[in-house]
Amino acid sequence: MMKERICRIIRSERTFYFMIVALFVLAVFFRTYNFHDWLHFGNDQARDAFLVENVVKNNAPWPLLGSSMGNTGFLLGPAYYYFQIVSVKIFGIGPDKLAYPDLFFNLLSIPLLYVFLKRYFDKKVALSLTGLYGISYYAIEYSRFAWNPNPIPFFVILFLISLWEFLLAKEKTRWIWIILLGISIGIGSQLHAILLLTMLGTAGVSFLFLMIKSRKTWSRWAVVAVLVVAANTGQIIHEQRTDYANTKVFLASFSDKSDNSGGSRFLRNTVLDIACTAQANSLISSSLGNKENCDFLYSKARNMKPNSALRLPSSKSARLGIFASLCFSVFGYGMLVYMTWKEQEKTKKYFTGVVLLYSVMSFLVMLPIIDLAPMRYFIHMTFLPFVFIGLLIGYLKRNYPRKYLAITIALFAILIGTNLSSIRTEALSLADKTRADSGYLVLDAAQLLADFIVENSSGQTAYLFGGTKYYSPYNKTLIYLSAEKGLTLKRGIDIGGVPSGASAFYVGSILGDGGNREIGGMTFIDHRDVGQVGIYRIR
Predict the structure, then answer these.
(1) 143 and 106 Cβ atoms separated by less than 8 Å
(2) What is the pLDDT of residue 420?
(3) Which residue has the higher pLDDT, 252 or 128?
(4) CA 236 → CA 217, 239, 242, 245, 336, distances in Å?
(5) Residue 504 belongs to a domain
(6) Is residue 133 one of the residues assigned to a domain?
(7) Of 252, 269, 286, which one is at a domain's C-terminal end?
(8) Cα 243 to Cα 134, 231, 239, 246, 250, distances in angstroms
(9) What range defines the domain where residue 87 resides?
(10) Under a CB-based contact definition with an 8 Å cutoff, are residues 374 and 138 in contact?
(11) Predicted model pTM
(12) What domain count does the chain have?
């Protein structure tokens, strides 16, 4: 009797919608709570802040190019900078204002994912999967700081919806979807080189498919091409002025400079690509596993050096996690293939077909760089694990009609629990200001370091020294935050060259309050420790 009553409550429309609304409220809360103080603000963010604010203050023209692609020297399109410039013009100057576009597009990706999933799944499943995406630790993490790939999930989903509509209606496709397809490719291709190649590859195959099915679609493809070109006007102008210098750098980045090339490298990278993709799918949906680097098949040192030996970890629990992740991904991709082949309903067949095509293109694009690909490089696949979960629910419902609901509830409970646990752990570390180390610095911790510099400076100009571990990641951050307080902080070259009466500081590892008063060969007078970072007043 009690069991039947509980089942009725769970199955009721009111309970279902209450739970979904609660998940959406949590999604917004997790993305906005303490947004300013807990904002990651490293050198890349400070660099962009200087550029954007100079444009807003009319001290520099709008840029024709964006940020660089890794260490290749290739510069992306300027769309992300334009988002930031508009944001600062509307909301004012400040580190958090630069990150508003990231938050905005991430929040928009939540209802847009529902619109996308509704193309295949019923309303309840689509809403449930969207709610799960809303509290995904991975999705939340990349909504809370300024980084050019962060808006990618929104533009990828928009691209897939528009492409699905185009493939389905062909020459009768409504022009709004053609326009949105061109916009999504035009902007998405400027957010990361991986997305540039994945989108163009997916669109290219779709173009061939549609031209075979209906040559009348050429005019719509022409509009898509015009919009893509228009969105990349800045890059085109720059290329014409510089004899296509940026394009030459991009093409040169494909040259293989490694000692391990050919068949052996291809096989190794294929295995690694499969493992890293499985790890990403697991991380995005559950938050379990290494959140920084792909380490399923790396040694205990977990290095990311090319050509390092591939081997499973010795821990049984780690091997079990790898096995479960691989099973999840193999099932998901297998179902995409199977449903694309077997599905009779055209709308659903094209849905799985579009997702499968995009996934294959992503796999191929990642193949040559997988050695150097951290987990953040999979942000363009954020939607995919939730499609897999939906396919799993459909499989369970068809084959285990009496048990599928209990299994589904248990699965969602586990995924919600693991994501909330990761969110809680992250929030606790941010709350006690311990997120200050060589790889991550949040704004409130950075502000403490900058405040110490400003408070202990005797003039309008001060000098900053430091070791590579901490100076390289944070010198621009401290220079920017000090400038906000009216202090000009310059890079220190030689302590002997600091002008008389000017203050000097050193950023490095914490030393504590012991008797050692030497750091970097310099004597320090006072210091402040924040997390694992210390700022020292030196002489």
Answers:
(1) yes
(2) 95
(3) 128
(4) 26, 5, 10, 11, 38
(5) yes
(6) yes
(7) 252
(8) 45, 20, 6, 9, 13
(9) 15-252
(10) no
(11) 0.92
(12) 2
